[in-house]
Amino acid sequence: MRTSTKSFAVAAVASLSLFTAACGSSDSEGESAPADESTSATPDESSTSADPAADLVGAGCADYAKAVPDGKGSVSGMSQDPVATAASNNPLLKTLVQAVSGQINPDVNLVDTLNGDEFTVFAPVDTAFDALFKELGDDGVKKVSEEKGGGTLSGILTYHVIPGQIAPADIDGTFKTVNGADLTVKGSGDEITVGEGNAKVICGGVKTANATVYLIDSVLMPPA
């Protein structure tokens, strides 16, 4: 992990509101629920008619496809669900899902929020969290998990989320995160880095029903 325990402590004061919106398909016939279908026609259209793998970038996309070739956690499977649900089906994102669903700190449960709007999400894979927890040590992890209000964890998680969906072709730049702090992304194709620690994009442009996801190899730390 590129970020030190000290950086984590310094970054501890932000707060949160994370991820994203649900959708469905559109059909005017009586057998389908018109309300559901009409409100989510556009997202569902893109996830069912367009190739979910068309805009993927990152040197790890082939490995991701091998690890999760089909099912709800695959590239095509994730495109059918809102981002919090889609992430919960991805075996590479188990710790992230625990973090946003109240399993690490019960005061940080973002699932409903995450399934409520469109976002770009930088999603640290499990090995990224493993490295962070190792660096923090048992005492550090305990402090974060038991912190009343969950401000530290909330601040970190929201720093991984940008309002609106950003495609790989437009991802190079500086963006305002849900945390409120700016996040800089550099590069294109298989060479995209994120944040001051230069976290690498493993596989990006992964579509969910309401978000564009970039799997990354490090946990990002918000600035002090």
UniProtKB/TrEMBL annotation:
GO terms for molecular function: cell adhesion molecule binding. SMART domains: FAS1. The keyword Signal applies. One of its GO terms (cellular component) is extracellular space. Pfam families: Fasciclin. InterPro entries: Adhesion/Biosynth-related, FAS1_dom_sf, FAS1_domain. Keywords: Signal. Residues 1-22 form the signal peptide. GO terms for biological process: cell adhesion; extracellular matrix organization. Residues 23-53 are annotated as: Disordered. It comes from the Bacteria. The keyword Disulfide bond does not apply. Residues 37-50 have a biased composition (Polar residues). PANTHER family: FI19380P1, PERIOSTIN-RELATED. This is Fasciclin. It comes from Aeromicrobium chenweiae.
